[in-house]
Design a protein that fits this description.
single chain; alpha/beta; 3 helices; binds inosinic acid; binds magnesium ion
Length: about 180
């Protein structure tokens, strides 16, 4: 609680753990209702979503599976340069109801990449649940179906979110001090 320092930067508390947890309970309740009888597969996107995925999935009471994927960067041969590929996917998702779990949707580039690659595996449906959304930064048309919190366009850390790899290990979410 209070202020923290991650590497060279100072952050102040923005979303306390209790608030995060109670919102996750609400999201879980909604998902339990919407996916009753559908046996969905939750797809956690690593690394950022690991805490959200854990806390949310503990509150899922319907039959459901969970698995994790990672977006890996590799140097493309084209002039576009950095291409991101979703790794860890397999045919198991064909004809299944998929719920993507993201920590945060910012510009939407990441979720756009994920959606395009997932569609190729022909799931029955794809929904997105993101703990956080920065509406002012979001540039895509893909609906973010379940959103924990809509936040201003400021840099945050904690609860799985990092600053240069550090700061993921806090149960609260902190915003960069200006
Ligand atoms: P997008 O592709 O612009 O939507 O960005 C999504 C990714 O950027 C997230 O999965 C995070 O890894 C990272 N990101 C965006 N905003 C923040 C932030 O405020 N703090 C930490 N990571 C962030
Ligand atoms: Mg992420």
């Amino acid at each position: 609680m209070g202020d923290i320092k991650v590497l060279d930067k100072e952050f102040i508390i923005s979303l306390p753990a209790e608030k995060i947890q109670s919102r996750i309970s609400e999201l879980a309740e909604e998902l339990n209702g919407d996916f009753f009888g559908k046996r969905p597969i939750f797809l956690g996107i690593l690394n950022g979503s690991f805490m959200f995925a854990t806390d949310l999935f503990k509150r899922i009471t319907i039959d459901a599976q969970i698995t994790f994927l990672k977006l890996a960067s590799y140097q493309g041969t084209s002039s576009t340069g950095n291409v991101k590929q979703l790794i860890g996917l397999n045919q198991e998702i064909k004809d299944q109801h998929i719920i993507i779990l993201e920590d945060i949707v910012d510009t939407g580039e990441t979720i756009d990449t994920i959606m395009r690659q997932l569609s190729g595996y022909l799931p029955a449906s794809i929904r997105i649940a993101s703990l956080l959304l920065k509406p002012d930064a979001y540039k895509k048309d893909i609906p973010i179906d379940y959103v924990g919190f809509r936040i201003p366009n400021q840099f945050i850390v904690g609860y799985g979110l990092d600053y240069n790899g550090f700061g993921r290990n806090y149960e609260d979410i902190y915003v960069l001090k200006d």
